[in-house]
Amino acid sequence: MRDDLRIIWLIAGRELRDQFRDWRILSPLLVLTLAFPVLMNEVAHQAVAFFAKYGANLIASRLVPFSVLIIGFFPITISLVVALESFVGEKERGTIEPLLSAPLKNWQLYFGKLLVGALTPLVASFLSIGLYMIMVSHQHLQMPSLYTMFLLMTLTVAHATLMVSAAIVISAQSTSVRAANLLASFIVIPVAVLMQGESVLMFWGTDQVLWLAVAAVIIMAGLLVRLGISHFEREYLLGREFDSLNWRWILRTFWGSFRGEAKSLFDWYRLEVRKVMRRLAVPVLIILTLAVIGYFASYDWAMANIPRLLPNASTQDMKELVNGALDSAGLAQAGRHLSALLIFGNNVRATFVILLVGIVSFSVLGVMAYLVNVGLVGGVLGIFKLSGYSPAVLFAAGLLPHGIFEIPALMLSSAIVLYIGAALVTPQTGKSMGQVVLELLADWAKIFLGVVIPLLAIAAVIESYVTPSILSAVMK
Amino acid sequence: MIETQDLSKQFNDFWAVEGVTLSVKPGQILALLGQNGAGKTTTVRMLTALLSPTRGWARVAGYDVSRRGDEVRASVGVLTEQHGLYMRMTGVEYLDFFGKVYHLNADGRRSRSDYLLDYFGMAQAGARRIGEYSKGMRQKLALARALMHEPPVLLLDEPTSAMDPESARLVRDEIARLKSSRRTIVICTHNLAEAEVLADIIAIIYKGRILMTGTLEELKQNVLGTPEYEAKFSRPWLADSMKTPDGMTLIGRGESSIRFRVENPREANPLMVRELAAMDAPLVAFQEVPRSLEQVYLKVMADVQGSSAEMIHA
Hints:
Chain A is mostly helical. Chain A has helices spanning about 1-20, 25-55, 55-85, 90-95, 95-100, 105-135, 145-175, 175-185, 185-205, 205-230, 235-240, 245-260, 265-280, 280-310, 315-330, 340-360, 365-385, 390-425, 435-465, 465-475. In chain A, helix 3 packs parallel to helix 7 and helix 15 (about 315-330) runs antiparallel to helix 17 (about 365-385). Chain B is an alpha/beta fold. In chain B, the strands form three sheets. Chain B has a six-stranded mixed sheet, with helices on both faces. A four-stranded antiparallel sheet of chain B has the order 2-1-4-5, covered by helices on one side. In chain B, helix 3 crosses helix 4 and helix 8 (about 215-225) packs across helix 10 (about 295-315). The interface between A and B is medium-sized, with 27 and 30 residues.
């Protein structure tokens, strides 16, 4: 183990020394790292004076922590170039082959690059934050508490780890530094958006939620590292010489995987769809368990908290609450005829959203989107219970008729996204990352076109023509 | 030792190497000859366990390249097509870095580094940044890196390219010394004279396939036919009544020389010399007509390209 760590440090140390000998990397890094806190200090000083003038002291008191968050973030984006060119830069300079020919394990190489990729931005970030805090301490600005500073530092480390992990994945999979730099936008922009959300939480003053954000970011970073190592292959790093969009290969790989060995539609269902369905057994079980937990947790939360939150609610208030709940559950139109096409379109869109957010987050956000739906049902039925309705009857009359088809469709959509997420972070020997992604998308398409779409179509027809009549009869 | 059987590598639809079967024993040098893009680098990369074979197998220093990549890489010293040097390091730092990568201790690293830099005449340059080195010095440093851990197997891609004649001679001498210390060596080169001097076995690769493999003599025999000998005389001499032994054919006659094709030189040549002496021929030299590896290579290439062209026309 000690020897392994020594090798990781050896790789990282060499590159660190290399950077510190290159004025083209060092000078912008130093200038921006040192200049930005000065600029930010002046802005914060002016802003605090402005807010104090209008009595917005709460915002003013949160401004310094917010500035720390921003100051910590900028050096990371600047020095992200180190991580972005870690593999692909060496490849372009021709120095990667001797290194790959050495008896180094893939993970040693990967962590060596990750370490140097993370160290540079973190050192720059902490230097920047330290300088800013020195300036703040010399002014009449409210210093953040030690707890807040700890939280901010942890957030900065989490951001750096997330961005560097993603940058290393890009670097190991790109064939040119130019392509890697272009792809960096896919790291910087989402993290910038994430930081906006974190800033809102900071001004709102909800530290506990911020800790959850830290945990989520670290989990994502961990999954990215896992993804990177899983798909790190010396062969692909050396084998591909240039980027080319080979549509023929893309279509052939996707179609080959989608069609498989099937010669007819019946064959396709019997061989290909069944094969993927078998692979989904465990994900479906996980999704089912999550559904049960999510449903009852949400139901219990509603039962326990709503009376406490609304101790003096009048009947009228409760009625409004129920109407609101009915509206959010789509039941307000009970008895009215809703277009089956509209319902179908809405559900297809929902399953697409689960796929899209699931793919960019290794299934985490996809499964969360599914859980939100499940939790909503539990919460709404809890509110009904509080209003004197029987949740079992409402479930049987308002959800079950079309839910028999819709719920399995939703569960399968979530299960395949969970499967894709797990497969992405699992080593797949002999396959490029592109091939793995295309095959997984083909698996998704098999389930989506072969099972989910037909189920959603049937569910939409029932929801449009049958459920409203049953629900209307029961509600009377 | 290097052994391969049906070693093949496919990239998408393209077979970069197909069906390569080779055997190089310790103390032998194999020269891999071929045009650019013939598959030499891909073959070397498979032997270094950098690329996994699509078909077939290879064992290097007793380790299977597909299953024991780390052990293979530890046993091999590679000189890559590109030098792959870190320009901001000094020569000494560079060798020390790779010494650490190959798990050499501090004393071992220092002594190997000193020896190699001294051997290649770079003892003074060792403290300078690699970026300041000439092309030849970089090549020598890259070779020193490959030799740093004294590997039992060496895979050298163009070991003397860009070197001045003295440096190239040094490298050739070092390769010969390594051969005598029972190292297994593969050289990819376009320098046919160098291959001729160094190689025990020569393999000609074309479009991923080995066209021909064997010793230099075997290749000459197979490609250029039976050897030719020439008898030179001190003055014009007519050899009308001369009798040639079995397996020897007169193929040319000059004013003061004659040329034979000889199938069994060991038996026929002494008989011929005796015959010439008996006839009082003013013989001053009797020697083989030199045939170079270049002639063999060019003939093989001309034949294979001709047959390819014929196939296309057909």
